[in-house]
Amino acid sequence: MCGHRVFCNPVGNALRGVLRATVGTKPPSGATALRPFPTAPSAASRRVEKNGVGSLWRKQPFQHGDITAAKDSRPLPRRRGMTLFELTVALFILTTVMLAIVQLMAATATQRRLVDQRRVALQEVANQAERVSLLAWDEVAPGKLTTWEPSADLIKALPQAKCEAEVSDEPNGPPARRIRLSVTWTNAAGWELGPATVTMWRFAGEERP
User: Fold this and answer.
1) What range does the domain containing 169 cover?
2) Is 49 a member of any domain?
3) CA distance 1 to 35
4) Please, where are the H alpha helices in the chain?
5) Spatial separation of the C-alpha atoms in residues 159 and 164, rounded to whole Å
6) Which residue in 12, 93, 97, 207 has the most C-beta neighbors within 10 A?
7) How many alpha carbons lie under 13 Å from residue 108 in its C-beta half-sphere?
């Protein structure tokens, strides 16, 4: 009896099935030949007849204790992990990209705020030009019209805005006066930005509508 049942049973059962089906013993002269006991071929026997004895090792892995393996088993591919240097480089690139995105968003917000402020200032001087056009000739004399009261929208958008009006007489041609209206303001850093201006002319004898 074989001491290693794990290795002997599959091969022994398969070989016994094949020998019973294919191999016989020649009886002596005058004796009756004995037929082997008919048995149904097992799955291992059929596999041996078809593919040979080696198929047992390919199809059936053996077990011994807690170890399970096959004769032709292949090692699993090793997974390559990230090194500390690669992780540091990846974090540096990610941080750089995030800082660039934050700076771009901040610059975009600043430009949008400047555009909104200039739009409010231009609207203020345009409205004031319409009011000045309705004033009498004597009310737009040089030195008399120097500023005006800012509107609520201008105070809300530009609390530090300065409204200035400059009137000068035209030396040539018919009596006329050149009126320049401007609004200036400072940003968060204290820098004075370019003024929003409107220039208009008033002629003597123009009637108020």
Assistant:
1) 116-203
2) yes
3) 25
4) 5-22, 43-51, 54-59, 84-132, 152-157
5) 15
6) 12
7) 6
- Residue appearing with tokens 């080696």: 54
Are residues 133 and 197 both part of a single domain? yes
As given in the structure block, the two tokens for residue 91 are 């974090």
CA distances from 133 to 61, 152, 201, 208 (A): 104, 21, 9, 8
**Residue-level pLDDT, tens digit, the chain, 209 residues:** 444 444 445 555 555 554 454 444 555 555 454 455 455 556 656 665 566 555 444 444 444 444 444 445 666 666 666 788 889 999 999 999 999 999 999 999 988 988 999 999 999 999 999 999 888 888 888 888 899 999 999 999 898 899 999 999 988 878 899 999 999 998 877 788 878 999 999 888 765 55
122 is a domain residue: yes
Identify which of 40, 74, 55, 69 has the alpha carbon closest to the alpha carbon of residue 10: 55
Taking each helix axis from N to C terminus, what angle separates 43-51 and 5-22, rounded to the nearest 10 degrees?
70
Asked if residue 95 belongs to a domain, the reply is no
Distances (CA, A) of 29 to 32, 33, 37: 8, 10, 22
| Any domain includes 83 | no
Q: Which residues contact 61 (CB under 8 A, 6 or more apart)?
A: 68, 69, 70, 71, 73
Task: Please say whether the beta carbons of 44 and 10 come within 8 A.
Answer: yes
And the tokens for 22?
């294919």
- The distance between the two most distant Cα atoms of the chain, rounded to a whole number of Å, is 159
138 and 197 in one domain?
yes
